[in-house]
Automatic annotation (TrEMBL):
Organism placement in taxonomy: Bacteria, Bacillati, Actinomycetota, Actinomycetes, Pseudonocardiales
Domain Aldehyde dehydrogenase, chain residue ranges per copy: 15-466
InterPro entries xref list: Ald_DH/histidinol_DH, Ald_DH_C, Ald_DH_CS_GLU, Ald_DH_N, Aldehyde_DH_dom, Aldehyde_DH_NAD(P)
One protein family per Pfam: Aldedh
Name the UniProt record assigns to this protein: Aldehyde dehydrogenase
Keyword list, A-Z: Oxidoreductase
GO molecular function, one term: oxidoreductase activity, acting on the aldehyde or oxo group of donors, NAD or NADP as acceptor
Length: 501
């Protein structure tokens, strides 16, 4: 069921199609938003062009002052922001608070670091070009389109928006149809501190509005969402050679080695798998536990997961499943795992009670079951026993997904982390990398490519601009027809001496 069918309402007075965002806990309408047409999206990108010139001219210091002011405004209005996130996603108050804390931290980091990471700097010109000075800077692309998902409606798109803005770009943001109000809130608060030009605009609507943004002539498109939609976005952007950043789903493994702190690993597995109702791209979905500690680990996970309760009240452990059709996917994965010989040690099929899903922990699930190979995106964990941590690494690396991972080991944590094919690994914790603004975030394989966050995340929204300046002439200059007859021979001799040994 899409919201087009469920909740759109037409406004005959101004011909503007509108749709409603709903509270998944109650089905109540949170707000109405325009369905932006292709023409409106093109117009937004056109407006963004002049805004981009204004924003780029502010320079690093000017932009930092505005971004810092925006951050302070977001902090002042945190309670309002949080209740909007809760209303549109259904997530618990604490899950929303954690999300918004991270938004603010990243915004601060990107604004502060942009000048150092992107500003013009000298680089070594090398022995052969010693008579030239060489400099490099990273310039804004212009207008960046951002398409975001609903599960972290502020944190996830802000991984692109904050970094693209800090790098000097204007942004046109298409939020998920489930969380348009959060997008409007971001753009509205930004406009309070940057009233001169529409540097950050929001275009609300459904998938077609996102598709229109891909074709609207933006200078880069940053997409976060599912892998199938990521492929469609790439195909649309390919038509105009628009570069893309694609942050897609994951099926993140957690490895519990023989020498792990088993209690800490169990706590982390349950939180990493269940918080935000398991609707986390880099959340824990599968656990590989070494046989030596498996019984103890499974007993602890069982105890902790059984104590958790989903609900609509603010202090619930986690909220409902935000997107109604995801409930069917979760149910199908649990049913398939049980039919194929897996066992539920917590919950089972009866745990799926839309819009809520209670914790489910499955053990001994065949490795080719959907619950192991596909993104479940619910408060479920698959825990499979392995002979040792080395087998765990092999299984962890067996999927096409490669977003994040976690390793619990007292002595081999970093060694095991180094063998995992994925973008980020947390050792003796889960998801810590997402909270370190200096670290890049992104995946490999079906989890996408490109990076948000960190220095890479700033550079992602720029192009490199390189300049050489000749400081003085030299006798050995091969790059002119005025060179002497022996110049090239001398240069080659030099190369042999310098680099041939
Ligand atoms: P979707 O892929 O369904 O949608 C993502 C965004 O794309 C939405 O704004 C959606 O609009 C839009 N969209 C849909 N169709 C098109 C199209 N043809 N062209 C352009 N845009 C389109 O993902 P979800 O919103 O369901 O988000 C959940 C997914 O996001 C999960 O797979 C999760 O793992 C992933 N994710 C990845 C993260 C990462 O950093 N790697 C972080 C967070 C989530 P509409 O909503 O209106 O359909």
């Amino acid at each position: 069921m899409t919201r087009t069918a469920a909740a759109s309402t037409a406004r005959p007075d101004d011909e503007q199609q509108r749709f409603a965002s709903l509270d998944p806990r109650t089905g109540e309408v949170v707000g109405h938003h325009p369905v932006r047409t292709e023409a409106e999206v093109v117009e937004a990108v056109r407006r963004a062009r002049s805004a981009a010139a204004f924003w780029a001219e502010l320079g690093f210091d000017g932009r930092r002052a505005r971004l810092d002011a925006w951050r302070r405004l977001l902090v002042r209005r945190l309670a309002e922001f949080q209740s909007l996130v809760c209303a549109e996603t259904g997530k618990s108050a604490d899950d929303a608070r954690i999300e918004l804390g991270l938004v603010v931290d990243h915004l601060r980091w990107a604004a502060k670091q942009a000048a150092k990471v992107l500003g013009r700097r000298k680089v070594a010109s090398g022995l052969l070009m010693h008579n030239h000075a060489a400099t490099l800077e990273y310039r804004p692309l212009g207008v960046v389109g951002v398409i975001g998902p609903w599960n972290y409606p502020a944190f996830t798109p802000m991984g692109s928006i904050a970094y693209a803005l800090a790098a000097g770009n204007a942004v046109v943001f298409k939020p998920s149809e489930h969380t348009p109000g959060v997008g409007e809130f971001l753009a509205g608060t930004f406009a309070e501190v940057v009233p001169e030009f529409p540097v950050l605009q929001v275009v609300t609507g459904f998938g077609e509005t996102g598709a229109a943004l891909c074709r609207a002539g933006v200078d880069k498109l940053a997409f976060t969402g599912s892998t199938p939609t990521g492929k469609r976005v790439m195909a649309a952007c390919a038509e105009s050679l628009t570069p893309v950043l694609v942050e897609c789903g994951g099926k993140d493994p957690l490895i519990v080695a023989e020498d792990a702190d088993v209690r800490a690993a169990a706590e982390a597995a349950v939180w990493g798998g269940m918080f935000n109702s398991g609707q986390t791209c880099a959340g824990v979905e599968r656990v590989y536990v070494a046989e030596a500690v498996a019984d103890e680990f499974i007993a602890l996970v069982t105890e902790k997961a059984r104590a958790l309760r989903p609900g609509g009240e603010p202090d619930a452990d986690f909220g409902p499943i935000t997107m109604p059709r995801q409930v069917e996917v979760i149910g199908a994965h649990v049913a398939d795992a049980l039919e194929r010989g897996g066992r539920a040690v917590v919950g089972g099929l009866e745990s799926v009670r839309p819009p809520y899903v209670e914790p489910v922990v499955l053990v001994d699930v065949p490795e080719d079951a959907a619950a192991v190979t596909e993104e479940t995106f619910g408060p479920t964990l698959v825990v499979n026993r392995v002979a040792d941590a080395d087998e765990a690494v092999r299984r962890a690396n067996a999927l096409r997904y490669g977003l994040g991972a976690a390793v619990f080991s007292r002595h081999r944590g970093e060694e095991l982390a180094g063998r995992l094919r994925c973008g980020m690994v947390a050792v003796n914790s889960v998801l810590a990398f997402a909270s370190v603004p200096a670290l890049p975030f992104g995946g490999v394989g079906d989890s996408g490519f490109g990076r948000i966050h960190g220095e890479d995340g700033l550079r992602e929204f720029t192009y490199a601009h390189a300049v050489t300046r000749k400081r003085f002439g030299t006798l050995l200059d091969p790059m002119t027809y005025d060179r002497g007859p022996r110049t090239v021979r001398h240069v080659l001799r030099l190369i042999r001496v310098l680099y041939g040994r």
